[in-house]
Amino acid sequence: MLRFLTAGESHGPQLTAIIDGLPAGLKLDIEQINLQLARRQRGYGRGHRMNIEKDRAQITAGLVYGQTTGAPLAIQIENRDWKNWQEKWQDGALSQLTTPRPGHADYPGMRKYGLDDARPILERASARETAARVAVGAVARQLAAAFGVQIGSWVEQIGPVRAQIPNLPVPQLWALAEASDTACPDETAAQAMREQIDAARRTKDTLGGVVVVTALGLPVGLGSHAQWDRRLDARVAAAMLSIQAIKGVEIGPAFENAALPGTQVHDTFLPAESGEVLRGSNRAGGLEGGMTNGQPLVVRAAMKPIATTGAKMASVNLADGQPAYAEYQRSDICAVPAAAVVTEAMLGWVLAEALVEKLGGDSLAEMRR
Amino acid sequence: MLRFLTAGESHGPQLTAIIDGLPAGLKLDIEQINLQLARRQRGYGRGHRMNIEKDRAQITAGLVYGQTTGAPLAIQIENRDWKNWQEKWQDGALSQLTTPRPGHADYPGMRKYGLDDARPILERASARETAARVAVGAVARQLAAAFGVQIGSWVEQIGPVRAQIPNLPVPQLWALAEASDTACPDETAAQAMREQIDAARRTKDTLGGVVVVTALGLPVGLGSHAQWDRRLDARVAAAMLSIQAIKGVEIGPAFENAALPGTQVHDTFLPAESGEVLRGSNRAGGLEGGMTNGQPLVVRAAMKPIATTGAKMASVNLADGQPAYAEYQRSDICAVPAAAVVTEAMLGWVLAEALVEKLGGDSLAEMRR
Amino acid sequence: MLRFLTAGESHGPQLTAIIDGLPAGLKLDIEQINLQLARRQRGYGRGHRMNIEKDRAQITAGLVYGQTTGAPLAIQIENRDWKNWQEKWQDGALSQLTTPRPGHADYPGMRKYGLDDARPILERASARETAARVAVGAVARQLAAAFGVQIGSWVEQIGPVRAQIPNLPVPQLWALAEASDTACPDETAAQAMREQIDAARRTKDTLGGVVVVTALGLPVGLGSHAQWDRRLDARVAAAMLSIQAIKGVEIGPAFENAALPGTQVHDTFLPAESGEVLRGSNRAGGLEGGMTNGQPLVVRAAMKPIATTGAKMASVNLADGQPAYAEYQRSDICAVPAAAVVTEAMLGWVLAEALVEKLGGDSLAEMRR
Amino acid sequence: MLRFLTAGESHGPQLTAIIDGLPAGLKLDIEQINLQLARRQRGYGRGHRMNIEKDRAQITAGLVYGQTTGAPLAIQIENRDWKNWQEKWQDGALSQLTTPRPGHADYPGMRKYGLDDARPILERASARETAARVAVGAVARQLAAAFGVQIGSWVEQIGPVRAQIPNLPVPQLWALAEASDTACPDETAAQAMREQIDAARRTKDTLGGVVVVTALGLPVGLGSHAQWDRRLDARVAAAMLSIQAIKGVEIGPAFENAALPGTQVHDTFLPAESGEVLRGSNRAGGLEGGMTNGQPLVVRAAMKPIATTGAKMASVNLADGQPAYAEYQRSDICAVPAAAVVTEAMLGWVLAEALVEKLGGDSLAEMRR
Lengths: 369, 369, 369, 369
Prior knowledge:
The structure is a homotetramer. Chain A is built from 13 helices and 17 strands. The first copy, chain A, has about 375 residues and is of the alpha+beta class. Chain A has a single domain (about 5-369), classed as Chorismate synthase, AroC fold, CATH 3.60.150. Chain A is globular, with a radius of gyration of 22 Å. At the A-B interface, helix 4, helix 5, helix 9, strand 10 and helix 10 of A face helix 4, helix 5, helix 9, strand 10 and helix 10 of B. Strand 11 (about 245-250) of chain C pairs antiparallel with strand 10 of chain D. Chains A, B, C, D: Its cofactor is FMNH2.
């Protein structure tokens, strides 16, 4: 059983993650983890902080001679910003945040945890936490890759600008996305996206969008139809909506499929040289009956615009019940290219978890037997 | 900690569910459970079987004098069809199903579990299992209702027909949906939906659609921002995509929000008489930071067309690798109104689980303290 | 991931269990389950009820053509006593039990669940529930047996009578125990145990004892040292103390080992023909570092005397706070031989769970690869 | 839901723990954590390393202004020994350990994880990991203490020396134990224990023993009779046997009770001024029906002698299958007083977990309502 927990505040000393249940014998490439952390910081329209943070993963447990041993892995990522915050953290030094910001965890968090200051809530709710998840996902992806699973993504939409995804092999689309500061493989759309982001910056507004994350090389039969909480659709959906600001998900073109007759949706089978089968299409997005069917796993995720807008938004000061404007916290204009990296990480996690369940999890050699 | 498991094959003797972790002191209304089971069988365009099955829940454990006691609840639902199938179940009596049907669990299930016959797979993968979940959900909803939570749904789309949802209070929309055999509150659209279903029947095709399920009366602070797998968005998404044929979900108008600037998406706060706050809108769909924010929880779910089409679909006989047509199994044309009831049940489950986590779970009285 | 839940009251219509996560392809022998259920009802000194109940397991889900399919298994066991109780269950027909019985769940259960009647508590707390666990364990043992694991037990002590366990191979000790109505392989002690039981019956008292449950044929490396809750010692201990009236457990002669120096406790290694190793002793009871080490897993469990004594025991009527005697409920004098069967069942469960974790769990064939 | 994971090797840079699910508003006393860490290092007969390590807990996440916020807590404990080991960790620098040591995780660990070197196994299996658990437990105990729960322990036996525990109130016994380097409240026995330890040092041997850990001030109704894995006896037993070298546990005098008739075991009820009840004895050890009954929770745990003995023990070099002696690693003679602190920590954990389940877990204020 694979499991992980993360801990850490946005302006605390560090982020920490523990992964338990990894098989022994996985030679971990730490630069791969750092590469993913760097990708999370990419993107046109990121804010000032991205220049401060140069995230590096430090593995403090679970590796001996560079390999996993079956022991839990501990990862920490230093917050370089910490030095600027340390003294502010002295009791009272930081002003209270009593006016909840629309779209943030501030209000429900204060009410849930009985706090009159939103600061402790936003420190944990911040997307900064996704750096820990990207590191966890980078480990999971290395495990999945040992079984031939490749994961990548692209940005399909930023604000109103929707890309025309060229009809190319998925790895080429990944490469095009990687080369763009919008992570969009359609350069015409990418240019329009940049203009949208510039416009949003001028109007002190923010943008969301849609990402498409895909996994290739999957074995048949990850997940199960047998019990509701073992269906892979459910686990993928949970993984996606566990990401800050991701509020919608579909496996394949689900909302489009809902409008079509079954004969145009369900993927026919064709004989294959191999003796195995081919499919006439992949509108199921790679999952049938809650299980991988050997086709690419295609997931679309909708991200809401960043909740922190430069433009004032109406709120209420909970300290006195009077109308007030939400206080501005330094933020980005658009983080969709970064979120795409987090969706890759979480998909990698779900797939690694399913591989360990299917194959058992003591050692890589045993899993491969 | 609330948990449940279901068991049962589509044509076996019965479905069984066990719910563990219910508080004591909940007076259970079994007719309410049966009412939900009947609602699951409703809808224009259901097949023959709906006339055979008149599902009734039988509680065989966990109730003393009509009240929960803290002990696990066992529910069973007899398959009235069983008498017609019992002898077929004798070894070999049922023909093997070796040609996987597109859109079903047949193919991945056979490969995962090492079977050369899809029958054991489809018997469990069938949507018949959702009857057990509706019963479980009906119990969870009674627990949630004890804390003022009301859940209902409507059908927004069947195939290409999209309803214009009238601007009415949610409970009135629920009532309109309840009165229609399409579960659609827009009677004009409902009529077009029926025509679509009739047309699909003529062309031996099937239809999917979109449902909107809503929860009212929620307390602030169910779920948590603190750890990825405790975010309520994630749990709601998992619950929805754990339902057979549901492949997409959004919390509020997530895909629409992805196209808009932040200032038009995030819900402003306004002072309220009560001293509490009002919101200028509910585009967050009732969840901020992975927690309920006191607004209605609004979930849209996309259902694919039923996978069993009367029209032949190309497949491969895995027994000989030769092209073949998928064998037709008796089925419905459209089950969106029924699926809406299952989404209500699963949402009820997630909310009951979150209430028990927040309030503790020994007795209703203790939860209310 | 293997998991199970049970439900059912002692005098309700039936017990129900659901097992989720079984691999496909296990040919289940239902008579083996019934045999275990019969063994649970054995033993010198059982009460009247054992003559009423002739437990039979009914599988209502998860088997197709006698084999598991990967789908959850549902098991139910009818309470033959039900017919005598059904009408008593009408509201108010059964007298309230307001005087908690020493050694029972009555008092903490009433307080925990906010009840002024202990009946709903004792109905679930009763050892009757162990019939469901024996059925679950009988399934788990068939899975474990497919990997060469054999489980058995004997009674080492009843009340003050402690057996001299002859120095024979474990399977012979199991056979001797099986042949005795005390489940004790030492016939001299067995006779003294019967006399103790007869004496206890005369004095309206009850007896407990000690059982030794052993598993043979275990692979090396079930469980793990890597995380506290994955240590097999912990899981075995939890499984034993989850059994009604079992209050102590040791892996090997743990309390004896605590008094000896390390050089006399730790099991030396010797070369083996096979190239593998032999051990000079098995004082570790088959577990080192939280993992099976290939030696027999030897567990001793201490059972308290049955809490329901014919002799009056002082209590307090919680309805009025006045001293009162605990009401007598029909019961046994000694159930140690029966409890031994439950310890076998729970050990079988833990080992099956560990096998599925180690080998993966889709099909028996895949587990064997 | 409260959960924790630990990570860290014995000679790695640090130990790390993450605790998820703590309520907000707990003012954490870090010196209390350090005090527990120091207690874990106490005891007559500890080895050289105890002088190197002066463990200090560093909280890197989950505290704002010294209080919990509902966010996960991250704790790290630096291994001061690391500086001496860092370069040894370079690939190959450390000699392989191919001869498994009796009583250690070496052999099953190597076989389970497919390693030909035991070093990665012993690095994680080492009791050094318990420092992380003591820190976790120290947090859990502060939560439990907020609800009036006090936890302490004493050493009852070291090797063959069994103490006569004076008939004093439990807190006085704790104080006497605290004042002794054997943690034994019977000074006569303590002196004999020291002599045993000195003798063992001379003979290059090691000793185990028995600890008694007690919790006072418990509410009635933690745990549940309703489902096997929710019985508190099971969770306490798992917590105890999850500790390195602890191999036996009993709730109250369970093995003694097994020899007595029920009328002498079960704790009678007496009326109390308060209107609540008193008990004539506490032979149930504070748990009836898997729930706390308001009496002191009394747990006895048996620790095996330390597995690393100075005296040579026969083993086999798995590299060549030849007989060899187990390599000596620096170690202690007796660690029972230290283990007692770990049993306190794990009991604290189980009780904090049960409190959160019973009371809900958003904030201390809400738990107290």
